[in-house]
Design brief:
- There is one protein chain.
- The chain has helices at 2-15, 44-58, 65-80, 116-119, 123-130, 149-158, 199-212, 222-231, 255-265, 286-293, 314-321, 336-347, 359-372, and strands at 20-23, 35-37, 40-41, 84-87, 106-108, 139-142, 161-164, 170-174, 177-181, 186-190, 239-241, 246-250, 274-279, 299-302, 330-332, 352-357.
- By secondary structure, it is of the alpha/beta class.
- It contains 13 helices and 16 strands.
- A 6-stranded mixed sheet has the order 11-12-16-13-14-15. Strands 3-2-1-4 form a 4-stranded mixed sheet, sandwiched between helices. The chain has a 3-stranded parallel sheet with strand order 5-6-7, with helices on one face.
């Protein structure tokens, strides 16, 4: 939900006439995707100037890849004189580099089991890490379902003004759209978001509640909200590319997102074969991901990412998927390009190829499709 929420916030603020800076991670194809000013990726020259400034300022302080990039983004935003920044936390919250900024409002989206090596083995531990972005006496929103008690405890300890989905506000779905209902206000006749999926209304609602907390400094009328919901764009998140075959690109890389992907695929009809192209990193619950979508595909092409840091080999993917997938339906491909070509041939003109898993796999598909179609 983080990427979707960022996309909604950026689009709504832009529609409201505000100048925005947006920082996200990771990228699909180009590093420049991570830093946008007024919805445009920064160019190479601006990035190099920012990196040079950070390099000169750091002295003998060692910085990680992500810390370097985060500081560079903040330099570029500061120089641009913007009205609002939308900053996506990279991993967790408490110790993430983005958390050096005190937010005017913090938004925590739906929480699932991911990055357990860093964040903890259960949702309460992960929730405690996410709650690290909360600030004393500052507004915050939890837009997911079943909020961990650790988030509530942190908010109470800090005196954070936390609003929780289903408790402090709720979504009412209508045939023609949806409504956002809270004690403070009711937003009626909201359009279904441009981003696909049943959870996107919940993500959008959380963003609207967060933006409402800033209404004194960033007022937004209904027109801006409607335009933003309808124009939000997020490549690689159930991105459907019509053609022969149809292509679906989705960075589902944990069991929760795989479950969402499964539901969305159930709404898409194609007469031909459904072929999966899947690649993953070694800290992912491959069996959990496979369980979420195993029944959707007639064939699997497993991408070998072992040449990449943390990448799993195709053979390791077969072992991890185990009995979830019929081994006879699995083909271990070499690199991503090999997998895409073979999957397209097997799907045929009336079938579908679904590329999912790591950003590395989906990014490679994005680049390959852009060049070959």
């Amino acid at each position: 939900g983080k990427g979707s929420s960022v996309a909604f916030a950026e689009a709504i603020l832009q529609a409201g006439g505000y100048r925005t800076g947006c920082y996200t991670s990771p990228h699909l194809v180009r590093y420049n995707e991570r830093i946008r000013i007024d919805e445009r990726e920064v160019d190479d020259a601006a990035l190099c100037r920012a990196f040079d400034a950070i390099d000169h300022a750091r002295g003998d302080i060692a910085l990680t890849y992500f810390e370097f990039g985060t500081l560079a983004a903040l330099v570029l935003f500061a120089d641009a004189g913007l009205d609002a920044l939308v900053l996506e936390v990279g991993l967790g919250g408490r110790l993430d580099a983005v958390n050096l900024i005190d937010p005017s409002v913090a938004l925590i989206t739906s929480i699932g089991l991911d990055h357990q090596n860093w964040l903890g083995d259960d949702l309460e531990q992960i929730g405690a890490e996410k709650a690290g972005i909360l600030r004393a006496s500052r507004p915050a929103v939890y837009s997911g379902r079943d909020m961990p008690a650790s988030i509530a405890a942190r908010a109470e300890a800090l005196g954070t003004e936390l609003k929780v989905a289903g408790v402090d506000y709720r979504v009412v779905r209508r045939a023609e759209g949806w409504e956002l209902v809270s004690p403070e206000q009711v937003r009626r006749a909201l359009p279904m978001p441009a981003l696909r999926g049943p959870r996107q209304v919940e993500n959008a609602a959380g963003v609207l509640v967060a933006l409402d907390a800033l209404s004194e400094v960033l007022p937004l009328d209904q027109r801006a909200v409607r335009i933003g919901l309808l124009s939000a764009n997020l490549p690689g998140r159930f991105e459907v590319r019509p053609g022969q075959p149809t292509w679906v690109l989705d960075v589902a890389h944990n069991p929760q997102s795989a479950e969402v992907l499964d539901g969305l695929l159930g709404e898409l009809f194609v007469p031909g074969r459904r072929v999966a192209v899947f690649g993953a990193l070694n800290d992912k619950d491959v069996a959990g991901i496979g369980a979420g979508v195993a029944k959707r595909f007639d064939a699997w092409y497993l991408v070998d990412l072992s040449a990449q840091p943390r990448g799993l080999s195709a053979t390791a993917l077969v072992e991890a998927l185990g009995e979830l997938v019929d081994e006879s339906s699995c083909t271990t491909a070499g690199g991503p390009r090999d997998a895409f070509e073979r999957a397209a041939a097997q799907a045929g003109s009336d079938g579908m190829v679904v590329v999912f898993g790591s950003f590395l796999t989906v990014g490679a598909a994005t680049e390959w499709l852009d060049r070959s179609h």
